[in-house]
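On clarity, I found the account of how folds are encoded harder to follow than it need be. Since the whole study asks how a given chain folds, the encoding of that fold should be made plain. The format is easy to grasp once an entry is in front of the reader. For illustration, here is how one protein appears when written out as sequence plus structure tokens.
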Amino acid sequence: MSIKTTSRAAALMATLLLPAMAMPVSAFAQTPSTAPATAQKAKPAMAKPMSPADRVERHITHLHAQLQITPAQQAQWDQFAQVMRDNANDMNQTLEQRGTGFASMNAADNMQSYAKVAQQHADDMQKLATAFQTLYGSMSDDQKKNADTVFRHHEDRGGHMHHMKQ
């Protein structure tokens, strides 16, 4: 696999996983509207936001279907999916730690805390890229073309690594 393809694979995984890992459930909390009641339209009841774990599981299921994983590739897929779960759990813990002390952080502490999040993300992406490399190596040429398209399509939609296009 070329460096460009590997970079795309890592870019897709970063783009797909970061939202699932980085958003604590509290980020979805809504504050009451200050608009007058007469200006508000009746809205259907919103479903409870998904937990981070549920978002990761939904993503794993969706990606499994998109990549057309075969029974022969299931062992490699299972390892890849477990890395996704572990990474999400690790990132959630890192973000929880950051969130706990955020209000009292000075600028230097804030920057150090953000660096810890960025380092956690980089470490997690390396683990994920390694697991994906094994899975990708087990794919047929048609599956690889499909995976490349899936990655490219996500990147073209403005994935967070889109600035790396060449």
About this structure: The chain has one domain: 3-22+49-63+72-164. Helices lie at 3-22, 52-66, 74-101, 107-137, 141-156.
